[in-house]
Amino acid sequence: MKSSLKIVMVGAPGSGKGTQASRMTKELNIPHISTGEIFREYIANKHPLGNKIKEFIDQGALVPDDVVLEIVSDRIGREDCKRGFIFDGFPRTLEQANALEQVSQIDYVINLDVPEERLMDRLTGRRTCKFCKHISHVSIIGDSMICPDCGGELTIRADDVPETVRKRLEVYESQTKPIIDFYRQRGKLIDVNSDQAPDKVFSDILEALGETC
Ligand code: AMP
């Protein structure tokens, strides 16, 4: 295994990037960097940029590249990223992917593939723990709003409502999907079928990384 491992998780909203990245961070012992999660913390903590960011997120639109890039370059400059990191939800545009290449060389890009027709149900049924951020689904927990992992309170993300989900899926198609070819052309892409049980997706990812690392 290399001394540093830099991974990008790509895939549509609801493809399981957050779920898989939070398992990989424990397995690989490198930080999980979710730009969406950083933004939600900015909003919750009333950061000066929070209100501006919230407007974009609430509309299902992307936060402007300059804002994203400043936050990301600050984050990967920290000590805990010396051995690498796992990006979840970044890059989301070709501009971001190009800018990332200027500051860091990514080793692997894991593309979580889920049929488009499954995404609406996966997102609108998603429940996120306020405390440990564990992601669950109504098909598993029913009406319960108690986290099966830590017993904390579950919430429905404000942008997981059908109208905003539709917009986010459109934005993914038009602005984010092109980065899949960007990384495929650079020989970095690993395709993983994410329309399977999370345990199986996780073992497929580890197997694919094990073969290439
Ligand atoms: P996520 O938690 O990855 O689903 O992100 C939630 C929302 O945060 C997205 O719908 C965007 O509005 C915003 N966001 C997250 N990451 C990025 C990014 N790399 N570029 C632009 N906007 C982002």
How would you summarize this macromolecular structure in one to three sentences?
This protein has 213 residues and is of the alpha/beta class. The protein contains ten helices and eight strands.
Notes on the protein architecture:
The protein is of the alpha/beta class and 213 residues long. Helices cover 49% and strands 16% of the residues. The chain contains 10 helices and 8 strands. It has a 5-stranded parallel β-sheet with strand order 2-3-1-4-8, sandwiched between helices. Helix 1 crosses helix 10. The longest helix has 15 residues, at 162-176. The relative contact order is 0.19.
Task: Outline the fold blueprint.
Layout: E1 5-10, H1 17-28, E2 32-34, H2 35-44, H3 50-59, H4 65-76, E3 84-88, H5 94-103, E4 108-113, H6 116-124, E5 126-129, E6 135-137, H7 138-141, E7 154-155, H8 162-176, H9 178-185, E8 189-193, H10 198-212
Helix pairs in contact: 1-10, 2-3, 4-5, 6-8
The structure holds adenosine monophosphate.
